[in-house]
Amino acid sequence: MTRGAAEDSSTKDALAVCPSRAGGIWIGSGLGLTYYDGQAKTYGVAAGLTNPYTKRVFEASDGDVYVVSGISVLGIFSAGKIVASYAASNLVVGMAEDAQGVVASVGGALYRVSRNTFTPYVFTNGVPDMAWILNLAAGRDGEIWVASVMGIFRVKDGMYRQWGVGEGMTDPNAQWICQDSDGVVWTGGITGIARLKDDKIRFITRKNGLFDNNIYSIIPDDFGQLWVDSGRGLFRVSRKNMNEFADGRTNRLDCVAYDGPESVKSSDKSVQEHVACKTQDGRIWFPTANGVVEVDPSHIPRNQIKPPVEIESVWANGVEKNPGSRLVVPSGQGELEIHFAALSFIAPHNIKLRYQLEGYDKDWVETKDRRLAHYTNLKPGSYKFHVIAANADGVWNDVGDILPRGGHETILLVEDEDALRKLARHMLERQGYHVFEADCGATALQLWQLQHPAIDMLVTDMVMPGGIGGRELAERMQAEKPGLKVIYCSGYTDDMLGKDSLLRINGNFLEKPFTTERLLRRVRERLDAVR
Question: Which domains, from first to last, does the chain contain?
Answer without folding.
Answer: 1-88+270-300 (2.130.10.10), 123-267 (2.130.10.10), 309-403 (2.60.40.10), 410-528 (3.40.50.2300)
